[in-house]
Amino acid sequence: MRSQQTNKDHIMSSSFLFLPGSLALENRPFHFKIADVIQSAFSSCHGYVGYKLTRLGRASDEDVPSFLIVTREHGIILIDVVEERIIEKIESNGAEYWRSESGEIRLARSLVLDLYQEEVQSRLKNDLTLYDRKTRRAKTPILSVVVYCSNQATENYVSPEEFEITDLTLDQLDAWLRGLPYVYNCTMQDLDKLYGLIEGTFIYENKNPIIDEDKLVTINDYIQKSLRTTFKQDDAQRLASMQLPPGPQRIRGLAGTGKTIVLCLKAAITHKRFEEFKILYLFNTQSLYQHVQTLISKYYTLEAKRVPDFEDKLHVFHAWGGKQKPGLYSELCRKYGLIPLTLGDARGKAADPLAYIYRDLLSKLGDEIEPEYDLILIDEAQDFPSEVFQLAFKLAKGNGVEKRIIWAYDEFQSLRDGEIKGPSELFGSKDGVPNLPDSILAGKYAGDIPKDFVLPNCYRTPRPVLMAAHGVAMGLYSQNPTEMFYHPGEWEAIGYQVNEPQSLMISAGDSVVIERPDENSRNLLESLLTENHKKPLKLIQCEVYKEDSEQLQFLKTKISTLVSNQGVAAEEIIIVNLKSGNNKEAMLTIQRALNSVGIKSVIPGYVESADVFKLKGYVTITTPFRAKGNEANIVFVINAQCVVDDFTLRMRNAYFVAVTRSRGWCYITGYGNGMEKLESEISAIKRDFPRFHFTCPDIASIQRGKSFLNKSDKELDKIQELLELIDKNPELRHLIADRIKEN
């Protein structure tokens, strides 16, 4: 079953968080003790304490104070910890140095703190609500403290006349912290701004043009205002991104909860903090190449004042790769002198071609594979077979419990694997013993670092659209539900709360009421529309036609109107075609229709390169598989008539992936009886919004419905054809039933 352990209680129990950073790796007892003192003293405050959280452009971590505290009540506090006893102050060339008892001479920590405080002041200049240009000082109070662990009070080496720094012994720190006056008390909005500026995540802020907020008229007006928010990490994202565990870790969440940006921040922070580390960032969607490198580069360049070393130290690899761009498989084949298999070689050999090529690689190389990465980050983990994880295990340095492998898993992204695989299944075994037991994710690492994170807040997809995606994908309003969670914790993991039944388990036959609360849906479009007397449920719209030509006519007319009259940029429109078969010809037909009304488009992976996505001035026409990892303001999901009658369940999963690409409006189109059935399901979902009302199905029926999902796509296509034939010819059902009775 899915793991029910979450970090939710940890987040909700206190408004003051601890971001341990690399504390668990450094394992310094005095620093652990001071972290406990700070957390205890500020337990009632709003904010956090971070360990060596950010360099703010300083040359190395030697130029960074040990702890940085940001609170609504007190402002910013910098604490530097001096562990060794200082015996002498030395002045040389206008600078001050300290000699420790061991004889080592270093730059005085008071000077380091003073220079860092100036960097904090400089960072706050980026927001005039936090900085006074007349006085050239931050409006936010900033205090700096040196804590001596081995010196007595009379021996401290901070000169009050030179620096505005308080010097304390370890025994004095707790009383000093508890005695601080509440001099700041800023708004939560200003606290969010402080977070973004100090952490450096303000670099991800959306730079949309200013619009007249009193005149929201077009679809683009609403979308742009919803996007014009200061980028900030929520508590769950911050806890996940701004620390480095000493061993394996899993991060889970729905599409749009921020897993990719969390992994990119973790990659950039580690690359900056441990320059000698070799890091691998692995993903499955080819169009993510540029996106991931951009996210990493933006943060790293701001903080380190140089570009990331993508050549030698930080590899951003697609799982497969090829001639045009390197991937993990192609690079390993090159390194070990193997001829790489192509998609043509693998197709038809196994249900999953990726599993086939990695299985082949593991069989040929075995123990020859050398550990080379200090940190491995795996994005889109739900799309990878266990063979990829087994190879990652071999590539990671350290023994099992020390291998820093962090994988981000999209909850509910794959009906082929309805239940999340545990580490014991993913990473393989040796002599019958799992390389990583499932218990490796239980509890926390030193420094209070959870081993299994859940990101509950969805930022990308508006709540009405997301619930229409979930409701259909799970078949909650169909005659035969296709997926079900029987533990309230499983619903909570994807951002819902169980109103009924009030029990530890949901059982077959129970009348169930599930609600998605406001706080777990952070896309602002719903509230903007409500405030302006618009109907948020119109964010998801169904169009039913009699034949394909009518669907095509709607598509080109609607897109032309969105671009010409509603101000929507062409590149912010994605068309996802659910119909299988001759995809290229079907999408070329759509392209020709758009051309007829002056709309340009690209077809990644079929006409253009697979990583050409959202090209400026061009609508993107794609498939659910290629759409993964991408998002757009407007999404059209076409040929949706194939969803409800797909006995193999693949189309419900494809539908979910397609719909959750939208951060604004989503149009579902199709034709015939199948589309009428789908519209009926979506109408029922909208009727009960923001809740689901359904009767819990029996777990055996769910498992029977998914019993053949381990078969190849080719086999599933044949099964689908056979089932459709039986459905259209009732006499065949009786014939098969009679044959079964005879046997």
Q: Summary?
A:
With 743 residues, this protein is of the alpha/beta class. Helix content is 36%, strand content 19%.
Describe what this molecule looks like in 3D.
With 743 residues, this protein is α/β, with parallel strands linked by helices. It folds into four domains: 196 residues, no CATH class; 196 residues, Rossmann fold (3-Layer(aba) Sandwich); 235 residues, P-loop containing nucleotide triphosphate hydrolases (Rossmann fold, 3-Layer(aba) Sandwich); 30 residues. 36% of the residues lie in helices and 19% in strands. The protein is built from 26 helices and 30 strands. The protein has a six-stranded mixed β-sheet with strand order 1-2-3-4-10-11, with helices on both faces. Helix 14 links the parallel strand 15 and strand 16. Helix 25 packs across helix 26.
With strands numbered from the N-terminus, the spatial order across the biggest sheet is: 1-2-3-4-10-11
Q: Roughly how many Å is the radius of gyration?
A: 28 Å
CATH class of the largest domain: Alpha Beta
What name is given to the CATH topology of the largest domain?
Answer: Rossmann fold
Query: How much strand?
Result: 15-25%
Number of discrete helical segments: 26
| Contiguous uncertain segments of 5+ residues | 1-14
- The residue-averaged pLDDT reads 87
Helix content: 25-40%
N-end to C-end Cα span: 35 Å
CATH architecture level-2 label of the largest domain: 3-Layer(aba) Sandwich
Query: Main beta sheet, described?
Result: 6 strands, mixed
Number of domain modules: 4
- Would you count the extended β strands for me? 30
Taken from the alpha-carbon principal axes, the silhouette is globular
CATH superfamily of the largest domain: P-loop containing nucleotide triphosphate hydrolases
